[in-house]
Amino acid sequence: MNKTLPSLLPILFILLIATKVTAQSPFKLESIDPIEKKFSKEKLDSLGLFLEQAGSSSVMILVDGKIVYQWGNTNEKLLVHSIRKALLNSLYGIYINNGTIDTTWTLKDLGVKDISPELSPLEKSATIADLLKSRSGVYHNAAAVSEGMIKNRPERGLHKPNEFYYYNNWDFNTLGYILEKCSGETIYDLFYKHIAQPLEMAYDNKYKTVTDPHESWEIPDVDGFYQYETSKSRFPAYHFRLSARDLALYGQLYLNKGKWGDQQIVPNTG
């Protein structure tokens, strides 16, 4: 079995786009005087002014697991956009490590199919490892793609799997589908069980499905939601809404090399 360690991506300084919900994380983070950690009060005051002018929503800075600075409502749940891919990465590390998933499996092995124009035999030869590295060579349309992604997307069939890097929502959306298929649980249930509960996040595991949203649609007031765009792909984007505080806990987990207290939550195979 090919075990792929999730990238250790410390997320300790968090700027997010506001929506609505506020909930206090049960886990208590200790605050310390930033001066003790060599932070300048004047510089932090300047940072606060910058954040206000920039239209930011919340920021939390941890040093050695303790709060040295926070700004805004750090308990407010916000759409975390592509941080969802780091969350998925953690879950893959767990299910690769326990033998549920083998990163050498191909799309053909897994029976992965998408809407017309269908995947070619070459595209179906892409492995889970290729998708995790954004090197699948599959340039099918996908849910929740940005204009920049569309502009830079190669033509179908231009590159073989593992030949070319392209930051591709099709890969990540399909990885979500594969994880759910192999585990038998939703990505939200998996995150709740393996990450949110052990870290005592404010994540309540309330999620819903949004299908073919209009341009003026509002982000649902939940912890996560599937975004289907049925004219583009059968695989939804899986969005998360988390607070800066909960993301700080997640970042600390990675700085701890996947360990929380005496529990190894995310495998450390490095």
From TrEMBL:
Residue span(s) of domain Beta-lactamase-related: 57-253
Keywords, in A-Z order: Hydrolase
Record Pfam families: Beta-lactamase
Keyword Hydrolase attributed: yes
GO molecular function: hydrolase activity
Protein known as: Serine hydrolase
